[in-house]
Amino acid sequence: MRWLIIALLIVPAMEIGIFIWAGGIVGPWWVVGIIIFTGIVGVMIAKKQGAETWNRARLSMNSGQLPAEEIIDGICIFVGAVFLFTPGFITDTFGFLLVLPLTRNPFKNLIRAFIKSRLNKSTIIYRK
């Protein structure tokens, strides 16, 4: 919980610093345009990736399999879309890393390891 509070304080300050720095180089209106452009493109990519993941999950469930990979993909895409919707260069970078399939795998491995550690500690309760 502490890391979340620290991140909520540090990331916006870093974003503001980058806005000021980039605005001094290319101009403030270009910075605003880039932020809007990356947000729109990112959300379009997230929507496409989300639809593809949803279709793969449906196919897995229709064949009687648990869509575990698709669930982890969906978590990454959702978090990435939230980051892309948030204005800023740092959040956009993390958003694109989570949304694009090629760069999503390291994050999927981290999520898998986190879930396994929670299951081993019996902190996740699964009821059927």
From TrEMBL:
Keywords: Membrane, Transmembrane, Transmembrane helix. It comes from the Bacteria. Pfam families: FxsA. InterPro entries: FxsA. The chain crosses the membrane at residues 5-23, 29-46, 75-100. GO terms for cellular component: membrane. NCBIfam families: PRK11463.1-2 (NF008528). This is Membrane protein FxsA.
